[in-house]
Structures are given as C-alpha cells and as structure tokens.
Write a structure and sequence with these properties.
Layout (H helix, E strand, L loop, with lengths): L1 H6 L1 H16 L7 H19 L4 H5 L5 H8 L3 H8 L9 H11 L20 E3 L14 E4 L8 E4 L1 E3 L9 H14 L2 E3 L7 H6 L2 E6 L15 H8 L4 E7 L10 E3 L6 H7 L7 E3 L9 H14 L5 E5 L4 H14 L5 E5 L10 H6 L4 H14 L7 E5 L5 H9 L4 E4 L1 H6 L22 H4 L4 H25 L13 E6 L2 E4 H4 L18 H7 L13
Parallel strand pairs: 4-13, 5-6, 6-7, 7-10, 10-11, 11-12, 12-13
Antiparallel strand pairs: 1-14, 2-3, 8-9, 14-15
C-alpha cells in the first residue's frame, strides 16, 4: 500500500491542511483563506478521482495537473516538445499528438505549413496527382487465406499488433479489444495466451503462438495440440500467428518472475503460480524449415482451416530463404507472414538488442517481399508489416514497399493513454496501461478508452484514404515504390523504385542475377536446416 499512499500524498495533505484550517477558525478568522484554498484543492482532488477521461489525474489527483499545465503552454514550449529531435525523446511527440487528437476526435489540422525539416537528407514524401480521386468508404479490407485455408479472414488493413496480457493490464486489454470490436478490426493477443479480457471484449483475435506455447502447452512447456484446438475453435479467433522473433529483442526469450504472476495471468498462460514463467528463445515444436512448414499445416488442420502464418524480424537473410525453399519443397505455404521491424517496441529489452539487433522494417519488408517474388510465391502469401506504423504515411509507405496490411502496437497504446513514462517493467505505469497493480489499473476507464481506440483506427484510415485519393488512387494497395520519393542531399532525390524496386517474379527459380545479392544467398539456403553451409548470412 506504500505506492498508493505516495501517489495520494498531495491529495491527502490538502485534506489534512483544510481540516487543520477549519479547526484554526475557532481561534482566528485569518484561517478562512487557507481553509478556502485547501478546500478548493480538495474538491479538485475528488473530481480528479471520479472523472473518467484522464488516467494521470485518476492516479495522481491534484499533482497530475502539472503535466497538463505544461501541455497548455503555447506556442514556444509546446512547439519545442513537438519538434525535438527524436533521439532526445522516447518517441516523436508529434506522432503522439496525432494519435491523441485522432483518438479524441479532435481536428488535427495545422496552420503555417509543414513542421518537418523538408531540406534534410532522408526526408520522404508521396507524389500526388492533378486528378485526385474521391474515396467515400475508407474501411479498407483484404482477404487473408491461401489455397489450403477453408476459413479466410476479411481483415482491416490496419490492426492492433501483438501485446500480451501480463505485459498490459486487464483494463488495457479489454479497452483495446472492445475498440477492435467497435471498429471492426483485429487484435493480436501477443504470446501471453487468450485471457478472459480478450474474450469479454468480443473483438476479432489473432492468436499468437510463441515459443512458450502459452495457453496451449503441456506441464513441461511443450506444445499441446488438444488445448490449441480448443482455443482455436473459438469464433473470435480469426487467424493463428507463430511468433519466431520480435523486432525489439530478436533472438531473445523472456522470463516473467513468479512474483508478477497473478491468478488471471496463470489462467491465460496455463502456467502454475509461484514458478517463473519461461519463454524460450527458440521453438521446441520444430527445428528445421521443413518441420516448420509441417507445423504450420498441423495448426491449420487443428484450427479447422483458419489462416496460419508466422511473425519474424529478419536476421540472417539466408534463414528466411531456407523457410521459403521449404515451402517449395513441401508444397506447404503459410497464409501470411508478418515482418516486424527492429524499431518495434517492447516493455523491456536489453539496450544493445533494442538498438543494434535485427533488421529495420523497410529493409526487412522489401527483402521478404522480393524473396517471395523471386520464388514465385508472393501471390499465395499475404504480408503484414509492424514497427512504428502510426501515421497514415507510415501505412502508405509500408504498402508501397510490399506489405498488404499494417499492424501497430504503439499507436493503439497511445490511444488508450500511454504517455511513454518508460515504467512498463516496474509495474508502476502512471496511466494503468502496463501494470498489474489493481489500484493503478482503475485509472484506465474501459468505456472511454475503447471508444478512443475505435476513433483512432477510423480517423487514421480516413487520413489514409485522403492521401490515397490525393495520389490519384482508389485503394491504398495501389501504392507502389514509384509513389515514394526520398531526398538524398540538397541536389539529389530518388524514387522508392530506384532504392527498393520490385524484383522480377521467379528470378530466383530462373537463377537470374538481380544486382542486390539475393541469388548467392539463395544458393546457400537449404530447406533441411537453418545452419549455413558456410559463414554467409
């Protein structure tokens, strides 16, 4: 109870001083002023605790107003915060501002033009048409499901990326899922299993199966097909995603200490109380590319023909080619692949991993896209993209470079009130998003935040439809690399087509040189093993 007492200390002090001043009135009328002042602050504190829109104020009555005071200072301090270099802050405050505005249905237009440094090298933009299109329905959707899938999923092109119950609070999971239900899009469960809060929300689920097989595991942590079959049979589960790696800490497993495991987490993950919950770095259900394809086919059969795919951050490029060669040899293809960029977030990751392990999304996405084209498989497999995809421009760029849809974790976390306090691993999240502390969780009001989730999704797709129409296109899937421009320096600009071209269909099967180094790696890749023939990666 120490933490709540500290957070309520300002409110408690105001109450104590108000009462003291009221007693002091028996001796002197001068005490009327402090009694009124502290009485007013007490009323503010009571209002903070009872209001449902601001999580910070619910957790930090009176004291939390300091944060909102700084947000209202204009234009110098607020503009400085928005335009600060992203290396100096956890993430672009402009991106957070856009999410908050869209989640709250606040107009996000600005005066005086762009705030970006348009003459800096690396600046990117989309080309537009003198004959723009008018798009009346921004509810863009795609069908996910290959030839072996009997229950394809008609998915939104923008969905909630993987975040587990346990990493996020019960209220956060419930708000996200209810928002997905209201907005008609999907919610990835993360590898922590399907919790009661996912079920209560009623929204479409992408069931992520990680190396710990949480929710579908035996007592010793192996994959349990019967438990998986039972979970996958739910009408809420629309797709199954095997997690190979995540961008923020690729190649690492994880440990949830026994002290942090609640009965609800144990129920969702299928783990005992009082024991550390281990998520291994690698899967035990398969060890070779061919075994991986067989596992995909097995999950598809157990799920009743629902789309099954996998998520990974590209590491050794040859290993991805090993997987693709296994598809060709076995004739088994996943219904989808999600490419996670290394810029993706997590609640806790070693600093070196967060900064220097794994391939960024743009490079990973184009490599996967072109490898599948080279193997003649691209038209059979959908590609999702995740990794800091918050703006409509981020989504458009990902689609232009080869993705079929985009996932976002950070954007939807902002929509439910995350302020990037970077306290996710401490259980002291000030807004109730990433904590299992019941008292802190109450700050996140599900009815309010779930609507903000739906608002953010709807308004972001509306912005994407406006950009799509401005480019003279009728659907975001029509974006191509040629629509993307990049500044190299003061005198040179290039198109996305020059930097990230679509390579010819079947070029790997025809042994054609591509000029980007694909063919030598293709020759080194084996469907029988991930281990290399030499040191090439």
């Amino acid at each position: 109870m120490i933490s709540p007492l500290i957070r309520m200390s300002t409110f408690g002090l105001c109450i104590a001083l108000m009462l003291t001043s009221l007693v002091g009135l028996f001796w002197s009328g001068i005490y009327v002023w402090p009694a009124l002042g502290f009485g007013l602050l007490t009323v503010v504190g009571i209002r903070d605790l009872s209001q449902e829109r601001h999580a910070v104020l619910r957790n930090y009555p009176i004291l939390g107003h300091i944060r909102y005071l700084f947000e209202t200072i204009r234009p110098e301090i607020r503009q400085y915060l928005i335009e600060s270099d992203e290396d100096e802050v956890p993430f672009s405050r402009e991106a957070r501002a856009i999410v908050y505005q869209r989640a709250k249905n606040v107009e996000d237009k600005r005066a005086f033009g762009t705030k970006k440094r348009v003459y800096d090298s690396g600046y990117q933009w989309l080309t537009h048409s003198v004959r723009p299109k008018k798009i009346t329905d921004p509810n863009f959707r795609i069908t996910i499901g290959g030839p072996d899938c009997s229950q394809p999923y008609n998915a939104s092109i923008y969905n909630i990326s993987a975040m587990s119950f346990g990493a996020l609070s019960a209220n956060a999971i419930l708000a996200l899922n209810k928002g997905a239900k209201a907005g008609g899009f999907a919610h990835d469960t993360g590898e922590g299993g399907i919790s009661r809060y996912h079920r209560e929300g009623g929204g479409d689920l992408i069931f992520e199966v990680g190396s710990g097989y949480f929710g579908c595991r035996t007592a010793d942590g192996q994959f349990d097909p019967e438990k998986f079959k039972m979970l996958a049979a739910s009408d809420q589960v629309k797709m199954v995603e095997i997690k190979l790696s995540q961008g923020a800490k690729p190649g690492q497993g994880g440990v949830l200490p026994a002290s942090k495991i609640t009965p609800e987490i144990a129920e969702a993950r299928g783990v005992p109380m009082g024991v550390d919950c281990i998520s291994p770095a690698a899967h035990s259900a398969f060890s070779t590319p061919i075994e991986m394809m067989e596992f995909i086919a097995r999950l598809r059969d157990l799920s009743g023909g629902k789309p099954v795919g996998f998520k990974m951050c590209i590491g050794h490029r040859r290993e991805f080619m090993c997987i693709v060669k296994a598809m060709l040899e076995t004739g088994i293809t996943p219904d989808f692949i999600v490419i996670d960029g290394k810029e993706g977030g997590t609640g806790a990751a070693p600093l070196e991993f967060a900064n220097h392990m794994g391939m960024p999304l743009v490079e990973g996405l184009t490599f996967a896209h072109n490898t599948l084209r080279g193997a003649g498989l691209r038209d059979k497999i959908r590609i999702g993209a995740s990794g800091k995809l918050i703006h409509a421009f981020d989504i458009a760029r990902a689609l232009a470079l080869g993705a079929d849809w985009a996932n976002s974790a950070r954007g939807f976390m902002f929509s439910i009130g995350c302020i990037q306090a970077q306290a996710c691993h401490t259980n002291h999240c000030p807004t109730g998003v990433a904590t299992q502390d019941k008292f802190r969780q109450r700050a996140l009001v599900v009815t309010d935040k779930s609507q903000r989730v739906a608002n953010f999704h709807r308004n972001t797709l509306k912005a994407l439809s406006d950009m799509t129409g401005a480019a003279g296109l009728t659907h975001p899937s029509n974006f191509m690399p040629r629509h993307l421009m990049m500044r190299v320096n003061d005198r040179v600009m290039v198109t996305g087509e020059e930097v990230y071209p679509y390579l010819p269909e079947g070029f790997l099967l025809r042994n054609e040189e591509d000029g980007f180094g694909y063919l030598p790696r293709w020759h080194r890749a084996s469907p029988a093993a991930f281990e290399p023939f030499d040191d090439g990666i």
